[in-house]
Amino acid sequence: MQANFFARKRRNSLLYSALLIIVTVIAIIVTEYDVIKGFTSIPKAAEWAASNFYPNEKAMKRLPAILDTLLETVLVSIAATSVAAVFALLFAILGSNTMGVGGVVSMISRSIATLFRNIDVAAWSMILLFSFGQSVLTGYFALFFGSFGFLTRAFMESIDEVSNSSVEALRATGAGYFSIIFHSVIPSSIPQLISWILFMVETNIRHATLVGILTGTGIGFLFSLYYKSLNYSAASLVVIVIVIAIFAIEAVSNYVRRVIL
Questions:
Q1: Which of 68, 118, 200, 222 has the smallest C-beta neighbourhood within 10 Å, fewest atoms?
Q2: Mean pLDDT, contiguous 10-residue spans, the chain (261 residues)
Q3: CA-CA distance, 54 to 64, in Å (whole number)?
Q4: Whole-angstrom Cα distance, residue 84 to residue 117?
Q5: Angle in degrees, CA 157, 163, 169, rounded to 5
């Protein structure tokens, strides 16, 4: 029986691999993609980047302006994530299987979270451009909506993982709904909630670069401006600054996680 199980699993793996190869070949034919030319152009692209895409002395003079724009981008990302976390916690409690009120309210809460979670930040940026134009507010709301959907779902799962024993103990003592939430559910799940918030801050800083290109704001717009004006040295400096900032923020987030978890 075990041999049949592994044989069936191997057969399914081969079938899915064959389907993947077929889909890939069809995509190459439809798009008329030259695979050989694509791979052979990699050395030339690397050679061009090595000879053009690096910061020079003139680009370094733009560093203060780049750092100011980066700081603005980071602050917008943190603000969008923090505010989204507050709303996400409310919707997560309402939609939770453990502490949700159930019925229509729980269903609506989960449906809203699913809707916002499945719309990409880039799509939110393009949608919001019609209402707010190219402004910081557009980028803020794009990050806010994306963060809200993701965090609501993550918070729901964290709250549902809370031990039912403490909840049942408080209910046995006659504690009310809000007393259980503020004295058991939230304190028990707060380390996981903070971890998810930190993860979302890191993600939003990465997303903010793309959002900035679309909305004409922040560090992403600065990169687009330099690149389109063929100022590759300044554009490379923007990339380097973004990479260093992401690594620094990730290091801080990992340290905080080690402390609270």
A1: 118
A2: 67 86 88 81 81 82 88 89 91 76 76 85 84 83 90 85 66 68 75 87 85 82 86 88 87 81 65
A3: 17
A4: 12
A5: 135
Closest CA to 242 of 45, 26, 259, 213: 213
- Start-end of H helices in the chain: 2-31, 35-40, 42-52, 57-60, 63-95, 103-117, 121-132, 136-160, 164-172, 177-180, 186-215, 218-228, 232-260
Look up tokens 């993550």; give the residue. Answer: 154
Question: How far is 70 from 237, CA to CA, in rounded Å?
Answer: 12
DSSP, collapsed to helix, strand or coil, labels residue 161 as: coil
Q: Cα(193)–Cα(152) distance, rounded to whole angstroms?
A: 10
Asked if 143 and 200 touch (Cβ cutoff 8 Å), the reply is no
For the chain, the domains span 2-52, 58-260
Multiple choice CATH, 58-260, 2.60.40.1250, 1.10.3720.10, 2.60.40.10, 1.20.1250.20: 1.10.3720.10
